[in-house]
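#lab-general

N.A. 3:47 PM
ok so I finally got the sequence cleaned up, no stray characters, all 277 residues accounted for. can someone with queue access submit it? mine expired

B.Y. 3:52 PM
send it over

N.A. 3:53 PM
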Amino acid sequence: MNNTLPAPLDVRLMNMTATVLFLGCALAVLAVGGGWLLRHPAFSIGRIVVEGDLVHTSALSLRANVAPQLVGNFFTIDLQAARRAFEQVPWVRQAYVRREFPSGLRVQLQEHDVVAYWGAEGSDTLVNSRGEVFEADAGDLEQDNLPRLMGAPERSAELLQMYRQLAPALAPLGSGIDSLQLTGNGGWRVTLDSGAVLELGSGSTQLLMQRVSRLVHTLPDVAQRQGRRVDALEYADLRHESGYALRLRGVTTVSTDAQKAAALRAASRARRAGQNN
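B.Y. 4:20 PM
back already:
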Protein backbone atom coordinates (compact mmCIF):
# COMPACT_ATOMS: atom_id res chain seq x y z
CA MET A 1 0.00 0.00 0.00
CA ASN A 2 1.40 3.32 -1.10
CA ASN A 3 0.77 6.33 1.09
CA THR A 4 0.98 9.67 -0.75
CA LEU A 5 2.62 12.29 1.37
CA PRO A 6 1.25 15.86 1.15
CA ALA A 7 3.42 18.32 -0.74
CA PRO A 8 5.44 20.60 1.44
CA LEU A 9 3.92 23.95 2.27
CA ASP A 10 6.44 25.92 0.23
CA VAL A 11 5.69 23.80 -2.83
CA ARG A 12 1.96 24.36 -2.44
CA LEU A 13 2.51 28.10 -2.09
CA MET A 14 4.64 28.12 -5.25
CA ASN A 15 1.94 26.25 -7.17
CA MET A 16 -0.76 28.65 -5.99
CA THR A 17 1.38 31.65 -6.88
CA ALA A 18 2.03 30.26 -10.35
CA THR A 19 -1.68 29.64 -10.89
CA VAL A 20 -2.59 33.15 -9.80
CA LEU A 21 0.09 34.66 -12.02
CA PHE A 22 -1.09 32.56 -14.97
CA LEU A 23 -4.72 33.63 -14.48
CA GLY A 24 -3.68 37.24 -14.07
CA CYS A 25 -1.67 37.14 -17.30
CA ALA A 26 -4.55 35.46 -19.12
CA LEU A 27 -6.98 38.12 -17.91
CA ALA A 28 -4.56 40.87 -18.88
CA VAL A 29 -4.19 39.41 -22.37
CA LEU A 30 -7.97 39.14 -22.69
CA ALA A 31 -8.41 42.74 -21.50
CA VAL A 32 -5.81 44.05 -23.92
CA GLY A 33 -7.29 41.98 -26.75
CA GLY A 34 -10.80 43.07 -25.87
CA GLY A 35 -9.78 46.70 -25.74
CA TRP A 36 -8.08 46.35 -29.10
CA LEU A 37 -11.23 44.80 -30.56
CA LEU A 38 -13.43 47.53 -29.11
CA ARG A 39 -11.24 50.23 -30.60
CA HIS A 40 -10.59 48.58 -33.94
CA PRO A 41 -11.96 50.59 -36.87
CA ALA A 42 -13.39 47.44 -38.40
CA PHE A 43 -16.14 47.51 -35.79
CA SER A 44 -17.05 51.19 -36.11
CA ILE A 45 -20.64 51.72 -37.23
CA GLY A 46 -20.25 52.20 -40.96
CA ARG A 47 -23.48 50.84 -42.40
CA ILE A 48 -27.08 51.55 -41.45
CA VAL A 49 -29.83 49.67 -43.27
CA VAL A 50 -33.23 51.37 -42.97
CA GLU A 51 -36.44 49.48 -43.67
CA GLY A 52 -40.08 50.49 -43.60
CA ASP A 53 -42.77 52.09 -45.74
CA LEU A 54 -41.29 55.59 -45.69
CA VAL A 55 -42.88 58.58 -47.40
CA HIS A 56 -41.60 61.64 -45.52
CA THR A 57 -38.28 60.33 -44.16
CA SER A 58 -35.16 60.42 -46.34
CA ALA A 59 -31.66 59.04 -45.92
CA LEU A 60 -30.37 62.62 -45.91
CA SER A 61 -32.53 63.63 -42.94
CA LEU A 62 -31.53 60.47 -41.07
CA ARG A 63 -27.82 61.15 -41.57
CA ALA A 64 -28.23 64.76 -40.50
CA ASN A 65 -30.35 64.04 -37.42
CA VAL A 66 -29.17 60.64 -36.19
CA ALA A 67 -25.55 59.99 -37.19
CA PRO A 68 -24.05 62.60 -34.79
CA GLN A 69 -25.92 60.99 -31.91
CA LEU A 70 -24.68 57.42 -32.47
CA VAL A 71 -21.91 56.84 -29.92
CA GLY A 72 -19.71 53.73 -29.84
CA ASN A 73 -19.10 50.83 -32.22
CA PHE A 74 -20.76 47.49 -32.92
CA PHE A 75 -20.04 46.23 -29.39
CA THR A 76 -20.53 49.37 -27.31
CA ILE A 77 -23.40 51.26 -28.97
CA ASP A 78 -26.48 51.71 -26.77
CA LEU A 79 -29.36 50.35 -28.85
CA GLN A 80 -32.00 52.09 -26.73
CA ALA A 81 -30.27 55.44 -27.13
CA ALA A 82 -30.03 54.77 -30.88
CA ARG A 83 -33.73 53.97 -31.01
CA ARG A 84 -34.58 57.25 -29.26
CA ALA A 85 -32.37 59.15 -31.71
CA PHE A 86 -34.25 57.70 -34.68
CA GLU A 87 -37.61 58.44 -33.06
CA GLN A 88 -36.68 62.11 -32.70
CA VAL A 89 -36.60 62.48 -36.49
CA PRO A 90 -39.73 64.25 -37.78
CA TRP A 91 -42.42 61.85 -39.06
CA VAL A 92 -40.86 58.80 -37.34
CA ARG A 93 -43.30 57.27 -34.87
CA GLN A 94 -41.41 54.15 -33.85
CA ALA A 95 -37.99 52.60 -34.48
CA TYR A 96 -36.59 49.10 -33.91
CA VAL A 97 -32.77 48.89 -33.95
CA ARG A 98 -30.54 45.79 -33.96
CA ARG A 99 -26.87 45.07 -34.61
CA GLU A 100 -25.53 43.46 -37.79
CA PHE A 101 -22.02 42.04 -37.49
CA PRO A 102 -19.40 43.36 -37.89
CA SER A 103 -20.16 47.08 -38.23
CA GLY A 104 -23.79 47.63 -39.11
CA LEU A 105 -27.20 48.51 -37.75
CA ARG A 106 -30.54 47.44 -39.18
CA VAL A 107 -33.38 49.86 -38.41
CA GLN A 108 -37.09 49.24 -38.94
CA LEU A 109 -38.96 52.56 -39.02
CA GLN A 110 -42.67 53.27 -38.79
CA GLU A 111 -43.89 56.69 -39.86
CA HIS A 112 -46.85 58.64 -38.52
CA ASP A 113 -49.89 58.36 -40.79
CA VAL A 114 -51.37 61.83 -40.45
CA VAL A 115 -55.16 62.26 -40.36
CA ALA A 116 -55.61 65.81 -39.00
CA TYR A 117 -53.95 69.10 -38.13
CA TRP A 118 -53.63 69.94 -34.47
CA GLY A 119 -54.02 73.34 -32.82
CA ALA A 120 -54.20 76.83 -34.27
CA GLU A 121 -53.80 77.66 -37.94
CA GLY A 122 -50.17 77.62 -39.05
CA SER A 123 -49.06 75.09 -36.44
CA ASP A 124 -46.74 72.24 -37.50
CA THR A 125 -48.41 69.91 -35.01
CA LEU A 126 -50.36 67.00 -36.46
CA VAL A 127 -52.43 64.00 -35.36
CA ASN A 128 -51.92 60.42 -36.52
CA SER A 129 -54.53 57.70 -36.92
CA ARG A 130 -54.03 56.58 -33.30
CA GLY A 131 -54.92 60.03 -32.01
CA GLU A 132 -51.30 60.81 -31.09
CA VAL A 133 -50.05 64.39 -31.44
CA PHE A 134 -46.66 64.87 -33.11
CA GLU A 135 -44.62 67.64 -34.69
CA ALA A 136 -43.54 67.65 -38.33
CA ASP A 137 -43.39 70.00 -41.29
CA ALA A 138 -47.00 70.33 -42.42
CA GLY A 139 -45.64 71.56 -45.76
CA ASP A 140 -44.66 67.94 -46.51
CA LEU A 141 -48.31 66.92 -46.63
CA GLU A 142 -49.81 65.98 -49.94
CA GLN A 143 -53.37 66.30 -48.60
CA ASP A 144 -54.72 69.81 -48.16
CA ASN A 145 -58.20 68.95 -46.91
CA LEU A 146 -57.43 67.53 -43.50
CA PRO A 147 -59.62 68.60 -40.58
CA ARG A 148 -58.21 70.61 -37.68
CA LEU A 149 -58.60 69.36 -34.11
CA MET A 150 -58.21 71.71 -31.14
CA GLY A 151 -58.18 71.03 -27.44
CA ALA A 152 -55.97 69.78 -24.62
CA PRO A 153 -53.21 67.52 -26.06
CA GLU A 154 -53.99 64.76 -23.57
CA ARG A 155 -57.49 64.50 -25.08
CA SER A 156 -56.34 64.23 -28.69
CA ALA A 157 -57.52 60.61 -29.04
CA GLU A 158 -60.97 61.59 -27.74
CA LEU A 159 -61.14 64.44 -30.26
CA LEU A 160 -60.25 62.14 -33.14
CA GLN A 161 -62.83 59.59 -32.05
CA MET A 162 -65.51 62.28 -31.85
CA TYR A 163 -64.54 63.58 -35.30
CA ARG A 164 -64.91 60.09 -36.76
CA GLN A 165 -68.46 59.88 -35.40
CA LEU A 166 -69.51 63.41 -36.34
CA ALA A 167 -68.18 63.41 -39.92
CA PRO A 168 -70.67 60.84 -41.31
CA ALA A 169 -73.48 62.17 -39.11
CA LEU A 170 -73.09 65.70 -40.52
CA ALA A 171 -72.46 64.57 -44.11
CA PRO A 172 -76.14 65.10 -45.15
CA LEU A 173 -75.62 68.85 -44.64
CA GLY A 174 -73.39 68.76 -47.71
CA SER A 175 -70.33 70.26 -46.05
CA GLY A 176 -67.43 68.48 -44.38
CA ILE A 177 -65.89 69.31 -41.03
CA ASP A 178 -63.21 71.98 -41.22
CA SER A 179 -62.42 71.98 -37.49
CA LEU A 180 -63.54 70.36 -34.26
CA GLN A 181 -62.78 72.02 -30.93
CA LEU A 182 -63.15 70.80 -27.37
CA THR A 183 -63.39 74.01 -25.35
CA GLY A 184 -62.07 74.60 -21.87
CA ASN A 185 -65.50 74.10 -20.31
CA GLY A 186 -65.96 70.73 -22.02
CA GLY A 187 -68.18 71.92 -24.88
CA TRP A 188 -67.83 70.76 -28.46
CA ARG A 189 -67.72 73.23 -31.36
CA VAL A 190 -67.76 72.27 -35.04
CA THR A 191 -66.86 74.54 -37.94
CA LEU A 192 -67.94 73.24 -41.33
CA ASP A 193 -66.11 73.77 -44.60
CA SER A 194 -68.87 76.22 -45.51
CA GLY A 195 -67.93 78.38 -42.51
CA ALA A 196 -71.03 77.46 -40.48
CA VAL A 197 -70.42 77.04 -36.74
CA LEU A 198 -72.26 74.41 -34.69
CA GLU A 199 -72.27 74.64 -30.90
CA LEU A 200 -72.91 71.08 -29.72
CA GLY A 201 -72.49 71.73 -26.01
CA SER A 202 -71.29 69.12 -23.53
CA GLY A 203 -72.61 65.74 -22.45
CA SER A 204 -72.28 62.11 -23.38
CA THR A 205 -71.48 61.04 -26.92
CA GLN A 206 -75.00 59.62 -27.23
CA LEU A 207 -76.55 62.96 -26.23
CA LEU A 208 -74.35 64.90 -28.67
CA MET A 209 -75.21 62.57 -31.53
CA GLN A 210 -78.92 62.95 -30.74
CA ARG A 211 -78.58 66.73 -31.01
CA VAL A 212 -76.75 66.42 -34.33
CA SER A 213 -79.33 63.98 -35.67
CA ARG A 214 -82.16 66.37 -34.77
CA LEU A 215 -80.45 69.21 -36.63
CA VAL A 216 -79.66 67.14 -39.71
CA HIS A 217 -83.19 65.75 -40.02
CA THR A 218 -85.09 68.98 -39.40
CA LEU A 219 -82.86 71.68 -40.89
CA PRO A 220 -84.00 71.17 -44.51
CA ASP A 221 -87.63 71.81 -43.54
CA VAL A 222 -86.77 74.77 -41.28
CA ALA A 223 -84.64 76.35 -44.00
CA GLN A 224 -87.31 75.79 -46.65
CA ARG A 225 -89.94 77.51 -44.51
CA GLN A 226 -87.63 80.52 -44.36
CA GLY A 227 -87.12 80.50 -48.12
CA ARG A 228 -83.59 79.22 -47.76
CA ARG A 229 -81.58 76.09 -48.50
CA VAL A 230 -79.46 74.02 -46.09
CA ASP A 231 -76.28 75.64 -47.38
CA ALA A 232 -77.55 78.99 -46.04
CA LEU A 233 -76.70 77.80 -42.51
CA GLU A 234 -74.32 80.16 -40.71
CA TYR A 235 -74.71 79.18 -37.05
CA ALA A 236 -76.57 76.61 -34.97
CA ASP A 237 -76.73 76.32 -31.20
CA LEU A 238 -77.73 72.77 -30.24
CA ARG A 239 -77.39 73.28 -26.51
CA HIS A 240 -81.14 73.85 -25.98
CA GLU A 241 -82.88 71.06 -24.14
CA SER A 242 -85.51 70.27 -26.76
CA GLY A 243 -84.49 72.13 -29.89
CA TYR A 244 -81.90 74.42 -31.37
CA ALA A 245 -81.35 78.02 -32.36
CA LEU A 246 -79.91 78.79 -35.74
CA ARG A 247 -78.97 81.59 -38.07
CA LEU A 248 -79.41 81.35 -41.80
CA ARG A 249 -78.09 83.94 -44.19
CA GLY A 250 -80.53 86.81 -43.83
CA VAL A 251 -82.67 84.97 -41.23
CA THR A 252 -82.37 84.34 -37.50
CA THR A 253 -84.75 81.79 -36.04
CA VAL A 254 -85.27 79.25 -33.31
CA SER A 255 -86.82 75.84 -33.81
CA THR A 256 -90.37 75.46 -32.46
CA ASP A 257 -89.48 73.19 -29.56
CA ALA A 258 -86.73 75.52 -28.45
CA GLN A 259 -89.10 78.48 -28.54
CA LYS A 260 -91.53 76.66 -26.29
CA ALA A 261 -88.77 75.67 -23.89
CA ALA A 262 -87.44 79.25 -23.77
CA ALA A 263 -90.95 80.59 -23.10
CA LEU A 264 -91.42 78.13 -20.25
CA ARG A 265 -88.09 79.11 -18.71
CA ALA A 266 -88.97 82.81 -18.99
CA ALA A 267 -92.35 82.23 -17.33
CA SER A 268 -90.71 80.26 -14.54
CA ARG A 269 -88.19 83.05 -13.91
CA ALA A 270 -91.01 85.59 -13.85
CA ARG A 271 -92.95 83.57 -11.25
CA ARG A 272 -89.88 83.25 -9.04
CA ALA A 273 -89.23 86.99 -9.29
CA GLY A 274 -92.85 87.71 -8.29
CA GLN A 275 -92.60 85.41 -5.27
CA ASN A 276 -89.39 87.10 -4.14
CA ASN A 277 -91.12 90.47 -4.31
